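User: Please predict structures.

Assistant: First:
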Amino acid sequence: TPKDFLQCLTLEHARSLLHRGENVLNVALTAGLSGPGRLHDLCVTLEAASPGEMKTGGADLTIDYGFAMTPFGEALIGETARGICHLSFLNGDGRDGARRLLVDQWPAAKLQRNDKRAGKLAAQIFARRETETRPRLRAFVRGTPFQLRVWRALLQVPPGALTSYGRISAAINQPIAARAVGSAVGVNPIAFLIPCHRVIRETGVLGNYRWDPVRKRAILAWELAAHPALNAYAA
């Protein structure tokens, strides 16, 4: 079960990933597992683009985007005046591929490069602090009504916990829509903030991750390190 799987995802297991040579995220895992800090939970308000904005591809929008280092590698972060509209981790296609993905999502928007702003957002999103104060972040996304329901349900899964596609479908009152839920999870435009990494298969298998399964495992270990006593989430 997801609960059994979470209990098996111990700090010792995360450490074994390093010993197996998965050094791409070495710094992230070391930072995530060595410090006593509490994961800085996020409060995210999700706003959807209107049908007109979706139809025009964001023609009236200006997106400040930039590249920033995170505990899980380099990321591209995009922000409009209405909130963060894009967060993706760089994979094999590098910066050019990440920028193309942003353009695909908002083809008519005006893009402005701003690495400094992206760095500030990354520091806020991935902060670990002892304080209980939570940053309030706004997200602005393109999505169908069904996708938005799935993404909002994901925002209710706390850090360090896991859920499944079936539980998410039950949470949105669509108990036989687990496959459609999986599709909505897979096109999440804001990695980490909308925590699709916390969804696993009903069998307890970690499953795929758009930004690399190794990164998914590292993020879960990083969150679990800050919430070691947390049980699996039940939607």
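Second:
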Amino acid sequence: TSSDGRYKSIYAPRASGQALAVDRAYQDAGFSAATVNLVEAHGTGTAAGDPTEFDGLNQVFSHNNPNKQHIALGSVKSQIGHTKSAAGAASLIKTALALHHRILPPTLNVEKPNPKMDIENTPFYLNTHTRPWLPPQNGLPRRAGVSAFGFGGTNFHFALEEYNGEHKGTYRLHETPETIFLAAPSHAQLVAKCESELAALRAETGATHYRELIAL
């Protein structure tokens, strides 16, 4: 977080103040802003607000980052409007779901970026279509940033990273039963076979024998 401090007016955004919040977020997160794939901007669509916010973002994301147009940029306000005090929460929900579903969500009603942004010469591109969020080629997890800037220059930025669990299968509290079929020519032989298998399962090597049985 950061504060713009004293500035032109309570409504006037300040790029340097916003950049400070963004920079602090990645310092706290422990990874470079250049490794982010998606930025959910505050993006109010105003003539003063958007270029100022973009300037602040560009200050941080272009630092030591020569790559151009590799970070998707958007704002949920294009879909649901400005929810005022809940705007940051809406952006955070959208971005968390984007990470969960591995989808880069679109920003609506954008025909042409504001020429003041010179977006072609920055790390950003305006994402106007739903796209699959492919894993980064450098092997890093998917990462995203979320900005929320309030009246009076109260600035917040969140750094998010996808969750990759150490366990790929379904977690279970209990082991599920397995069915084992045994066959023999006669009743007596079947009973003997059952007793033999039961003895083997109760032995020290029973766990190994069980896995062999259910693999048949």
